[in-house]
Each structure stands twice: as C-alpha cells, then as structure tokens.
Amino acid sequence: MKRCVVGIHRAGEPGPTSSKDTPTVWFPSMATMAAVLSEDNQALLRVIRAQRPKSLTELAELTGCQVPNLSRTLRMMEGYGLVTLKKNVREIEPVALATEFKVMLG
Fold first, then answer.
1. DSSP string, 42-68
2. For the segment 40-83, what is each residue's pLDDT rounded down to a tens digit?
C-alpha cells in the first residue's frame, strides 16, 4: 500500500506546482483534513486493509460500529480517494487505498 501524500488547497489560492511530493489528496482546510484523517478513521482503514471484510455488515462486526455510520464515513472517504466501495450483487465491499499519510503544509 503506497503512502498517500495529502495537502491543503483553499479556493482562490494559486494552484500547486508539480513535484514528487505533490499531494495526491487535497483538503479544503486543516479542520477537514483532521476530521477525515482522525485516529478513528485511520484505525478503520487499517482494519479494512488487514481483515479485508466482504461487506459493510462484516466490517460493522469487526469494528463495533453501526452500518449506517460506516456507510456515511466510507462514502466521505471515497470522495477523497482513500477507499473504494466495490458494489457486488447484494453487498458493498470496502477496499482501503491508503493507510499511511504524508502531510504537506505550507
């Protein structure tokens, strides 16, 4: 699993320049980044990577969280490119795309 480089890019500011450390995930503010990459969410990503649950129900059993809460959190993380939600016939399988993060500031 590759390390994900994240950064902050506020609307109206000049765009970032390209380099090897150019963030691949952008957040609109430090508060948003802190909420998305909270310790609980990072732990959730590690469980997904290690246990490879085949459904949100299975993930709920592994984490003790409720399915609606997991669904909401994972859809938000999918929007930032941190997870993929594979839709099978009757289930949704979460796949963690990143579990390590390098934060670029300034």
1. HHHHHHHHHH--SSHHHHHHHH---HH
2. 999 999 999 999 999 999 999 999 999 999 999 999 999 999 99
- For the chain, the domains span 4-104
Class of domain 4-104: mainly alpha
Angle at alpha carbon of residue 81, lines to 41 and 1, rounded to 5°? 75
For 58, counting Cβ atoms within 10 Å of its Cβ (0-12 exposed, 13-18 middle, 19+ buried), the class is: middle
Alpha-carbon distance of 76 to 29, in angstroms, equals 15
CA 37 and chain centroid, separation: 7
Instruction: Please enumerate in sequence order all residues whose Cβ is within 8 A of that of 25, keeping only pairs 6 or more positions apart, or say none.
Output: 4, 5, 6, 7, 80, 81, 82, 98
